[in-house]
Design brief:
Length: 156
């Protein structure tokens, strides 16, 4: 008589690609619920003032992780609120710190198209070009939309 060994199935936790959080008790409650279902999340801080620097993102990440109960694993992938006044050096600092690692960490399997407009477009292009992230840059909304269609194999 042949006896089959019990099979073990490990189900990994998925990622949340867009998790809005506030601060304090509301943040802790949402993080606790999210950590039950997701292993990590791309964090969109809904804070006033917004998270615009690497130091602010690191501090907020620490508050998120600190709100978790012992033994609970949850990795917040932080983002910065970028404006036309965000210096390229701040983006470089964030990328070097690993704080703005969401695109690299998530391992996108689809094209990422961004629309750059504002006063520091050329600086933004340079930072993106040097980031190692595979990004397609659109000149405006219409150009970005055409590039999305072309990138997924459609006819623009």
């Amino acid at each position: 008589m042949l006896r089959a060994e019990p099979m073990q199935l490990n189900i990994t936790l998925p990622d949340d690609f867009h998790l809005h959080l506030r601060d304090g008790r509301a943040m802790a409650d949402v993080v606790a619920h999210s950590a039950r279902v997701f292993a990590r999340a791309v964090i969109m801080p809904n804070l006033v003032p917004p998270v615009t620097t690497t130091a602010q993102a690191v501090s907020y990440r620490d508050r998120i992780v600190g709100s978790l109960s012992g033994g609970v694993f949850f990795e917040p992938l932080m983002t910065l609120y970028l404006t036309d006044r965000t210096p390229a050096e701040e983006i470089e600092t964030a990328a070097a710190s690993g704080v703005v690692a969401a695109v690299k960490e998530v391992g996108l399997k689809v094209p990422l198209v961004v629309r750059l407009e504002g006063t520091n477009v050329e600086e933004g292009r340079r930072v993106l070009a040097e980031s190692g992230i595979d990004v397609i840059v659109g000149e405006g909304m219409a150009d970005a939309a055409e590039k999305v269609v072309a990138a997924v194999g459609g006819a623009a």
